[in-house]
Specification:
Bound molecules: adenosine-5'-diphosphate, magnesium ion
Largest sheet: 6 strands, mixed
Number of helices: 7
Radius of gyration: 19 Å
Distance between the termini: 36 Å
Helix content: 25-40%
Strand content: 15-25%
Structural class: alpha/beta
Length: 294
């Protein structure tokens, strides 16, 4: 048996430079097997870059990273990855089942698996994982015709179909409405607890997942902090990370509201243009159902 204290992702004093700019430096963190960890921080601060480093798609300029005890990029099949969202063309006639099957073919990223196919077993796994994410009712429909939440469930199924040990999710709640954010958060929690998958998820708003998180990595212009959500998301830490006075308020029902957060110094922030005090604020902290129904 593997120890539950086993560190599966480790960064030591890591630094990334892209296009001549330091994206982040001095980043150290440990994520243990089975944990649900969130990477938080403003736009352009290097959250997606952190995931790409762990996947071996981006190299470090300095420092060290270990994933499942080895250098990144050597774990095809042991790692599932849901990249930051792009939308499907409504006219795209690929069925949900086939989207999930792509995860087995390794067509999404990395190299195809060696030829040792067992079609019946593959089909069973595809059906099981579609059921796990609660997408059985619509997996035979064209992906382009489905709602954002339905598409996201199928993409999570695709990332899970090879039974990965680690699942990287880059802003999976992005562009979902609040009930779907709650339902997908609950689903991801279910996957991490029931399937024992280590989940590392980039999030814009911590509140939908706050109750589930074992660990938070908060990246800001002034550095990065790792720990439990309530250790990390404090007035002191965020003021230091953003290099400006910030206040973290906890509402009576446990939500976190960040006041005074400046815009990120992003060179070109892409989609989120949320202003101060919106980033960790959610009006809807409640989780719906078990996440597998809707
Ligand atoms: N290939 C690249 N070359 C140069 N700069 C890049 C490259 N990829 C990303 N960046 C920059 O690195 C910064 C961090 O990007 P990213 O990790 O996508 O941020 P986040 O996910 O936190 O929004 C951004 O300023 C982005 O423009
Ligand atoms: Mg990103």
């Amino acid at each position: 048996m593997r120890s539950i204290d086993e560190v599966v992702i480790e960064f030591r004093d890591a630094c990334v430079q892209l296009g001549g700019h330091t994206i982040w430096s001095g980043l150290s963190l440990e994520i243990k097997r089975g944990e649900f960890a969130a990477i938080l921080g403003p736009n352009g601060v290097g959250k997606s870059t952190l995931i790409k480093v762990a996947l071996g798609m981006t190299g470090l300029h300095f420092g060290e990273v270990r994933v499942l005890g080895a250098a990144p990029g050597r774990h095809q099949g042991e790692i599932g990855y849901l990249p930051q969202r792009r939308s499907f063309d409504p006219s795209l006639h690929i069925r949900g089942f086939d989207i999930v099957r792509l995860g087995l073919d390794g067509a999404r990223w990395g190299l195809p698996l060696p030829m040792r196919r067992n079609r019946a077993r593959e089909q069973r796994r595809i059906d099981d994982v579609i059921e796990l994410v609660g997408a059985s009712d619509y997996a035979d429909r064209s992906i382009g015709q489905l709602s954002g939440g339905e598409q996201q469930r199928l993409l999570i199924a695709q990332a899970l179909v090879q039974r990965p040990e680690i699942l990287f999710l880059d802003e999976p709640l992005d562009s979902l409405d609040l009930p779907n954010q709650g339902a997908i958060s609950s689903l991801i929690h279910h996957v991490s607890t029931v399937e024992g998958v280590t989940v590392v998820m980039v999030a814009h708003d911590v509140n939908p997942i706050l109750a589930y998180l074992d660990r938070v990595i908060y990246i800001g212009p002034g550095g990065a902090v790792s720990g439990t959500a309530h250790e990390v998301i404090t007035t002191e830490n965020l003021s230091r990370l953003f290099k400006t006075p910030i206040e973290v308020l906890t509402t009576s029902d446990g939500r976190l509201v960040v006041v005074g957060q400046p815009e990120a110094p992003a060179h070109h922030s892409d989609r989120h243009e949320h202003g101060a005090a919106t980033m960790l604020h959610a009006e809807h902290p409640h989780h719906h159902g078990d996440g597998t129904s809707h």
